[in-house]
Amino acid sequence: MNVLATIGLFIIMGAALTPPQSTQEYLEHLVGQRLILRHYAGSSNPKAKEKDLSTAKGGCDQAVEVTTVSFEKAAVRLQLRNIGAPVVGNKSVGCAPDPYIFLKITDFDIAQPVDQITKAIDGVLQTPESYLAALGTPWELPHSLENEVPVDASRPGLTAAKFVLIVNPSYTAADRKAHVQGTVTVNCVIGTDGLVHDAVVAQGLSEGLNKNALDALTFFRFYPARDGNRIVAVKVPLQISYRLYR
Question: Between 20 and 30 A from 160 (CA), which of 76, 119, 129, 196?
Answer without folding.
Answer: 129
